[in-house]
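2.7 Reproducibility. Because tokenized structures are sensitive to small changes in the input, we list the exact sequence used for Peptidase M16 N-terminal domain-containing protein, including any N-terminal residues retained from the expression construct. No trimming or masking was applied before prediction.
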Amino acid sequence: MAEQRLYSHAQPAGGVVRLADQLEKPLLDDRQYRVVKLSNELEVLLIHDPATDKASAAMDVNVGSFSDADDLPGMAHAVEHLLFMGTEKYPGENDYNQYLTKYGGYSNAFTAATSTNYYFELSASATSNSPSSSANVSKESLAVSVPKNKAPLYGALDRFAQFFVKPLFLEDTLDRELKAVDSENKKNLQADNWRFNQLDKSLASKKHPFHKFSTGNYKVLHDDPIERGVKIREAFINFYEQHYSANRMKLCILGRESLDQLQAWAEELFTDVPNQALPQLRWDGLSVYDENDVCTQVFAKPVMDKKLIDLHFTYPDEEEMWESKPSRYLSHLIGHEGPGSILAHLKAKGWANGLNAGASTVCPGSGVMMVQIQLTEDGLKQYKEVVKVFFNYVAMLKEEPPHRWIFEESSKLQDVNFMFQEKSRASSTTSWMSGVMQKPLPRDRLLSGQFVLTKFEPESIKRGLAHLSPDNFRFILISRELPVDTDSKEEWYGTEYKYEKIPADFLKEITKAAKASANERPPELHLPAKNEFVPQRLDVEKREVVEPALTPKLIRNTDNVRTWFKKDDQFWVPRATVQVCFRTPLLSTTPLTAVMGQMYGKLVEDSLQEYAYDAEIAGLDYSISMHNQGIDVSVSGYNDKLPVLLEKVLLRMRDLEIKQDRFDITKEWVTRSMKDLEYQDPFRQISTYSRWLVNEKAWIAEQIVEELPALTADDVRAFFPQVLKQMHVELLVHGNLYKEDALRITDMVMHTLKPRRLPPSQWPVKRAIEVPQGSDFTYPRTLKDPKNINHCIDYSLHLGNNIERSLRAKLLLFAQMTSEPCFDQLRTKEQLGYVVSSGAAIYGTLYSYRVLIQSEKDCEYLTGRIENWLVGYEQALLDMPDSEFEEHKIGLINKRLEKLKNLGQETARFWHHVVSEQFDFELAYRDVEHIEVLTKKDMLNFYKAYMHPSSQTRAKTAVHLKAQSSVREIAKKTDPKEQREKLAATLTNILGQLGVQAEPTKLAARLEKVDVAAGDTQGILNALGEYLKEGAGAATEQVQQVMGQGQTVLAQVLPLLGISPNASAKGERENDVAKTDREVLPERQSQSVMIEDVKAWKASMPLSAGAKAVKPLSNFEDLESKL
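Resulting structure tokens (single pass, no recycling of outputs):
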């Protein structure tokens, strides 16, 4: 971007250039902004938020996977992982995360095509934000300047900056982090979005870096380069030194400190980031798809039961055209769902259920336009007609010039959205904005430039439209049932596909469709009408408020309806939400009633799709969801037209006409969706079974699916009137509406549906299983996906139902204290899997502590490692200094008192407390009161009673999701010769690092007599020892050194080759875990009891009491009709 486009100022002492003093910002944004460029060319966006209780920073580096060397795919991603592992100033690999956790913070990073983004968030204050906190010894006001050594943000910035100044790339962390990369890749191997993204990339132009494999795995980042003689640590350091330069970096810092203070810290801490004056990365003149890649068709098989057709076009990079954004005009029309649209026509034909369209910049210099259509079974058969309908619509767009009114309508909506944009969490802001800074926007338009439309450029729209031609696209048809046989497998994910040129006769039909005249096109295709949902009234009456109200008021409380209301008193935006719960026991009676409820909700949404789309793009959304307590209807957005949409939804619910063709299509979609739930990543599935296990009445996907084949349209037609006939209605009206508005909305709901009173004795009661103290249960379940190699464990320790506040406080503090140590031990050090998490889990009224791991290692092994960590944590707790314990309390208190960022967050909080039937609106403040008084002795007693594996009062359940595919099964499918050769090559490299020269072919010959596939570690060691003595002429000391480390090395090496080491459980535990305490677990009181029949198990367990209100409802009533 040209420097003269920015606000530029004279360069002050220190070499800092001020690029912008003010940014164009939303109407209610009370933050102050400044953009500066440090003397090393590092650009920094400073954000002063005087009211924030969270601080954050993010660094976006202009290098990503597109810069990977061809023979080291995933290099940029690996560097992202390794960068966190210690710096010269802070050499401890965990110093950074320990510091953040102490202040209730966290960090993360991601690698994209052309950038790598690092960010963190933590408390803005080192002391408690509770006004009465005993944890706060030296209270500080937000307005008082704090010495930098007491400011959490300064300490975090100091540690963060060093990653870009002098990272260590510690040798002893290298292997572990590459295994983390490998685990991350394996997590995604059965995920369709990753599989089809890579298929598209792999079939793209080899001249463009888009075609690369960006994640990396252990083989390509470790084994292969070592085999080639590459010193991989040096390679990573070289990549870092070659691409990481201050002038390629964009830093965003958000804090409550003044702009001058934030700037001073940025100068102090980040000026030492080396500047190599590298050029900004561009790929001009390269197309994602070249002439050989277009006019092609791909047929691909998914893991889940998807039916999709994706149309991909090469498209210009429009980032320089930020004022007009021409592709927005096209994607708005192509992706429209209202009357006249592509989707409306395809739905009427019974061919499609959904459509998405949009252009994106792949990298500076090239882009793509992508259209995805969700097909029905008939649509799959008619995929050629679907493609022709798309090009018919494009032909219509090309027939007439772009319309100014369409642009202006979109422009107005974007203006309104930007004007009333609300805050998001601190780290979301900094991560997003540091990425935006890489774009060619004037610095004073960093906030607005990405949203608003200020120039109507019809010629640019036409140029974009010209790219939507039959000679510039390819399509991918995705389904388990394809019209052709697949004949290829994608290299990195194994996706089965067939790739070929579009047959000449079909391409001729497409070309004809793209040139069709109005008489030749379906008459149902036309431009949308003007949007009647564009908000007109955007007035907000802002009143002075000493403190925002913590609770809504109960403004109607009769036998059949309760209405909760709060007029917004802190965000002052012209938005509102109406939440309605229609309470009924009918939806949770059986799996059949549950699935009829789901079908009813989907049919209502399906029938409203054309009507509601205009409301959606005008910032007004609705949703219908079914659950055990009944039906939830939510309408949220600009309040101007909100009652109109709500009434339409209610009328359609009441008067729904179920057409057989739409029923059949919806049933087919629901069936596929329910079956697909069992093909998700294991860590995404497991919570379903954990909740099912402890809830009194709940149903899982397989129970729902059993009922679907026999379900008819008449069943649903007869069912939903019975549901609506008798219900209790609960509403929350919140936002820019008045009390009279809320009462009118209540009247409208009741008048429209006219439900009979449902007596409280018939309301569904939320009850959970009371897992007895001293019990230990395990529910094992096999994954449906035969190709998923990941196991998953949900290890839960239960405290009980409706627990007292002091026990809840201890649970929250224990979760806070153990979050980082658990991750550090089980993920970072032991590398059990990429997905490792721990924390408090609350299922209805049941409170638990939960550890979740997804891993290639089996669940029994994971159980042992979790319990080993839990045992070891006792000493950590005993050794914890009092100051650190108090810091954990402060971090948790500040987390519980974190300020709401927007109206939606407050609505969600209110609604949670309403539907819980506990009405505990001030829960966060009650938590703080009980956290403040906790002592380390309290936590030790809590730990010994509820967490320690030897505790006789501990209550444990675990869900084990077990993979069908094991490393042994994989090994069985691998050629034994190939296994021997790979093992010999790997061992040769390891021996080379120990100073022992070996020849892989001769070593492989020695291994011929060993059953390598069975993981015969002793046989492999014997053969290796013989070779070293007789074939390699190694010294006795060298042989002893190798043999002494042999078991440990093989325990790490063999699984990477798809071989399970044939070692005892004790040997595996001792040898497979890096740097863990080899302590003996305490003797268990009893073995875990397997749950074979969930229904029978639940029947044998006691049930909890239902939810209890913390206060009488009369405390919340405000039944007067006045404002």
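Confidence is low (pLDDT under 50) at residues 1-13, 134-143, 1063-1085.
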